[in-house]
Specification:
The strands form eight sheets. Strands 1, 2, 5, 6, 9, 12, 15, 19, 23, 27, 30, 33, 36 and 39 form a 14-stranded mixed sheet that branches. This protein has two helices and 50 strands. With 559 residues, it is an all-beta fold.
Length: 559
């Protein structure tokens, strides 16, 4: 999956100044590039609202913004002790985009970056290109003494690691969020230890946050919920890699992501996370709602005796039923050693899940729903034989699922991310062009069969291509041949308004010809009935020859 980088823009205040910091300076200090302050906190003390604090590479102690809206930028070249003693100053024009150069790491009993606010005046804060480590907590939006909430904070391009302690159950060892319009962008958040959400926690019921482009990995939780992310409020969670997070308890829910509010989740990779109970990858709890599209969820695990639920799980609570809406997701190879029940989607206690255009494979049993709960599945490849329009059982033919490549093999062309190019396979996935015919396929490369692919790459530029030789004839891809109903349980009607149909050749999904059906006496007729009740469920292709043209149609046989 491609990572998307965001261009950040912030309002410019005509009175804003630039203040420089370099821990190499032990001489005169006034915040200029010639005589920078030696500590970030000294710069904050002398800053006005909306000032920018430029910090040279070095090691610094914990900071508190003292309620001021500020911009913090790490990674500047700065100077040497000798250059400052000589009065020649440092370089605060050249900045290296490497957060490891500028570190805040002053002790396990302190908060690395404590963000506060004390007035209703406009407030925005940017913290960019630092490492925050070895703290009681990394970055905290304060809720103890601050009022109003610390809104409009952007935390970007940082490394936030090794914060918290084993066995501690307070929330949010890496980042603790509170307030509206928060952004967490392109950070590495790893190896933090704490309570619920040791990677990222908070975002209360009326708060909002966008979390995009981060790696949230190898964090460990010691409470009974959320080994990685724990969020309420309104959440946009996109383009993140959430992996290796672990809930260290005898029981507990939500290894990778736990949602309590309303979340829009797109293009995340959620893998190798663990919790003892259910929701190894994603857990939606306490009346939460998650809209999930183009999610790749794989190799997550649970261990609680007889439950399963290693992939995505839902449960209700005091706020009512939880809901999940999954579109074009791939949920694969999730595992529980004691049960294969619902290792793709596990719905418990009066909660509800809708699945469309997805691939569920290698999970053992894909679906579990308790009494009072419902899973509705359509146009989805799964191994349970789940009833629903367009569902079918098949091997999706992933290219290399063991190494995390879930692109679909294609005789028409498969995108290879390791070489950033297209390759041709000898076999063709049945999940190509198998989605709901009303779903958009506009982002898929040509040839795309005028129909969306299943799974996380459907309707994206990396969607595997239609096989356009013989079966998918591009001479007249949009010819007005209609097949109805499609999908069908075995009987199809093929007709054309303008020209008689002479014959129809039938192929399976790997391109092998099965039969030829000719019209009456080979003279042609405007419609033909096909009876495929003797064929197995799956994807087939019709090569339709009329009086004037040849075109192809894809059909789905589902019972």
């Amino acid at each position: 999956m491609k990572k998307i980088f965001l261009l950040l823009t912030f309002p410019i205040c005509v009175h804003a100044s630039v203040i420089c910091v370099d821990d190499n300076n032990a001489a005169t200090q006034n915040g200029s590039s010639q005589y920078p302050y030696s500590s970030i906190q000294m710069a904050i003390t002398n800053a006005a609202d909306f000032d920018t604090i430029k910090v040279a590479a070095g090691s610094y102690t914990s900071i508190n913004n003292m309620g001021k809206p500020l911009t913090f930028l790490g990674g500047y070249q700065g100077g040497t002790t000798a250059s400052y003693n000589a009065g020649t100053g440092g370089n605060f024009s050249t900045r290296t985009p490497d957060p490891a150069l500028t570190k805040i790491n002053a002790g396990i009993d302190s908060i690395g970056v404590n963000l506060t606010r004390f007035t209703f005046d406009p407030f925005r804060l940017l913290f960019d290109n630092f490492t925050v480590s070895n703290k009681m907590k990394g970055i905290v939006c304060d809720v103890e003494v601050s009022w109003p909430p610390v809104d409009s904070v952007t935390i970007s391009n940082n490394i936030i690691e090794d914060n918290g302690q084993a066995g501690i159950t307070s929330y949010g060892a890496g980042i603790f969020l509170a307030g509206n319009h928060q952004q967490v962008l392109n950070n590495i958040i790893r190896n933090n230890r704490g309570g619920r959400g040791p990677g990222i926690s908070g975002n209360f019921s009326t708060d909002s946050v966008t979390i995009d482009g981060n790696r949230i990995e190898n964090n460990t939780g010691y409470d009974d919920h959320a080994g990685g992310i724990y969020l309420g409020g309104f959440v946009v969670l996109t383009h993140n890699i959430i992996s290796g997070n672990h809930l260290q308890n005898s029981y507990g829910w939500g290894g990778g992501v736990l949602i309590l509010g309303v979340a829009h989740m797109s293009f995340n990779i959620i893998k190798d996370n663990f919790c003892p109970s259910y929701g190894g990858g994603v857990f939606v709890d306490e009346g939460g709602v998650a809209y999930m599209d183009h999610e790749l969820i794989y190799r997550n695990t649970t261990s609680y005796n007889g439950i399963g639920g290693a992939g995505v799980a839902l449960d209700n609570g005091t706020n009512g039923s939880s809901y999940v809406y999954m579109t074009n997701c791939t949920v694969a190879n999730n595992f529980s050693p004691d049960s294969s029940s619902g290792n793709a989607v596990f719905v418990d206690v009066s909660s509800f899940c809708t699945v469309k255009n997805c691939i569920m494979y290698g999970n053992g049993h894909d679906f579990f729903e308790s009494n009072g709960s419902t899973i509705t599945v359509t146009f989805t490849l799964n191994q349970d034989g789940k009833a629903g329009l367009g569902n079918f059982i098949a091997n999706p033919l992933f290219y290399d699922s063991l190494n995390g490549d879930f692109h679909l093999k294609s005789r028409g062309g498969r995108f290879n991310p390791s070489i950033q190019s297209w390759v041709i396979d000898s076999v063709h996935s049945p999940a190509i062009d198998a989605g709901d015919s009303t779903s958009s396929f506009a982002s898929e490369p040509s040839p795309n069969g005028n129909r969306i692919n299943l799974g996380c790459y459907g309707n994206t530029p990396e969607a595997s291509k239609t096989f356009a030789t013989g079966i998918e004839d591009l001479i007249n891809e949009n010819a007005e041949v209609i097949v109805y109903p499609n999908p069908s349980n075995g009987k199809f009607l093929v007709f054309n308004r303008n020209y008689n149909i002479k014959e129809i050749e039938v192929y399976d999904f790997i391109g092998a010809k099965i039969m030829t059906v000719k019209s009456n006496a080979g003279l042609g007729q405007s419609q033909m009935e096909l009876d495929f009740t003797h064929l197995s469920e799956g994807i087939y292709f019709l090569l339709v020859q009329t009086e004037k043209f040849v075109t192809s149609k894809k059909i789905i046989l589902a019972r």
